TrEMBL record:
InterPro entries attached to this UniProt entry: S04_transporter_CS, SLC26A/SulP_dom, SLC26A/SulP_fam, STAS_dom, STAS_dom_sf
Transmembrane segments: 119-144, 151-168, 200-220, 274-298, 310-331, 368-387, 399-416, 436-456, 463-480, 495-525
Topology relative to the membrane: Multi-pass membrane protein
Domain STAS residue range list: 549-687
Major localization listed first in the record, in broad terms: membrane
Protein name (Swiss-Prot/TrEMBL): Solute carrier family 26 member 5
Species of provenance: Gasterosteus aculeatus aculeatus
Alphabetical keyword list: Membrane, Transmembrane, Transmembrane helix
Signal peptide: none
Sample GO molecular function, one term: secondary active sulfate transmembrane transporter activity
Record flagged with keyword Plastid: no
Amino acid sequence: MGEISNSTGTEAVAASAMQPEEAGAGEEAESQPLYRIERPVYDEAFISSQLLNRKDNSTTLGQRLAQQLRCSSKRAKAAALTFLPILTWLPSYPVKQYLFSDVVSGLSTGVVQLPQGLAYAMLAAVPPVYGLYSSFYPVLLYTFFGTSRHISVGTFAVISLMIGAVAVREAPDSMFYVLPANGSNVSAVLDVEARDARRVQVAVVLTTLVGIIQLALGLLRFGFVAIYLTEPLVRGFTTAAAVHVVVSQLKYLLGVKTQRFSGPLAAIYSATAVLSHIASTNVPTVIMGLVCIVFLYAVKDLNQRFKKKLPIPIPGEIIVVIVSTGVSYGLSLSEDYKVEVVGKIPTGLLPPTAPEFSLLPSLVTDSFAVAIVGFSMGISLAKTFALKHGYSVDGNQELIALGLCNFISSFFQTFAITCSMSRSLVQESTGGKTQIAGLLASLMVLLVVVAIGFVFQPLPQTALAAIIMVNLLGMFKQFADIPALWRTSKIELAIWLVAFVASVLLGLDYGLLVAISFAILSVIYRTQRPKSAILGHVPGTGLYCDVDEYEEAAEYEGIKIFYSNASVYFVNSDLYVSALKQKTGVDPEALQAARKTQKKVMEKAKSTKNPSLKLCGTDKQQEVSHEVLSYEAAAEAHGNGQLGESGGGRSHSEEAVFLEPAVSAVHSIILDWTPCSFIDSVGAKAIKQEACCASWTPYSFLAAL
């Protein structure tokens, strides 16, 4: 801001700035070119009446609907390609370039997907075979409907744990204790088959509802809902989920039998139950579990260190599954050492059956949480790979794809799925180019289900617990976010901590609700506590900076440039006006009161007959007192030739009234609204009211947009 002038009745702003320095060292600052702009200051009424005219939109609502619903071969083809993305790349699939890489990637992903499917079924509180079903049907469907070429969908620890919490809540162990038929004095025993069957029904119905919600959101173009799950929220939430998972797997790792808890404080109750039964730890179970953990950790470390030299990652999970199954079968760990094993795995696929829809009313809230979390994790990883490999993914189509995967697969007894980070990294790092790799991985799972599933019946559950725990190491590394967020943003750190603490203590469902609510409140807090400053000009540049922060920034005399980094609306309009008064030092109410006082005194001076009444105003800047006489006293003084005298002496009969200056030293205030995205009517009225109270003209109260 250089100056504000009012020449020939036209307001103009003359601004000057320095252009960037030309290339070449040693160039003198004086040789830098300058540019000067003079432009008139317009108001809204002049712009709308003289400069701009809106286009006449004569189309009716019916015409617009007809245009949107108009069908043609071109639009039908575009809709088909959007709904079935496989049609866009499969006809032109470069077999020679991509097929070998996809085969290697598919086999590598399959050997990881198989043990993870078995393990994550334990988290979902259903028999392991249902994890294999969930690793086949959804992956097959995503090949046709998904837009990402690299993510691996299927079972995932966080989603499986959320499903397991719901299944345990709706079908707790206490519902399935029955008395044996051969005696009345024997204590009740747990009917495991009836309990598992009921939990499978709950998981299947929940998956159906999750699919319906995701499909509806995708068709309604609500793919943007994932933006409300900010990254600190998701990372804090997934870290808390990792804590829940580890706590839930401790009993399998130690070989103790405890009740599975759900709801608030479930993690604390589960840890307490395990510690209370620590004396009954099964030693062979602990030994095998610890050996598996050490081996898997070593393999993952080797894969990470030598990922550029290894053609494919070492499949640690499948090695653990095969070796531990062989050891368990050869040493009869289940019969001789009471080591818990997977148990019966039926051969073949189940026929499609309708879910038990009578369970729907109690699962609506949980299904929304699972649907949003599953989609947010899938789309975030899909966008990461798309950015890395130079293609785009459609958030709405991803919602539709996940919705179809969950909805259709639920009729084949699966539980909800999403993208798995560990498998996706394997699929991408081993050279996967398209979802052909995912298709081959699902076919490997199908082979196990149909032909050789019974082989894994002796698999110890402690080995699956070890696989789950080691795969969560990456989530525990997210604790490193805390010092980073402390340095960059305290509010985002608060979101991370609230998401973590609430999810650990209240459970994943209520914790997610609390975290989202807190994140929304943090946005409101930021708008109510924006940064405000008075800007000053940095000499020799076109920069305007905070005068309190930078000593080079200097204000123009009589001009205040007020900056606030938030929009002005009903929530923060009063706070905005208060900050404006505080920073500029201008109080419109005080100015208005002072003007009223002056007006009353002047009217009193005009009406009085006492010629000796003097009104004295003090100029604080020049420390000079000026006398203001009534008209009669002024005329008398002029006639006697005394008006030009200093008036150093004052008679005791003279009455003097001293007035504070009613006019502020600030004659113009500029509102920098560059970061302001919108101003509602309440905010506009608040600012207009302050301007009117100060009796400023529109050109004294400017807005730099």
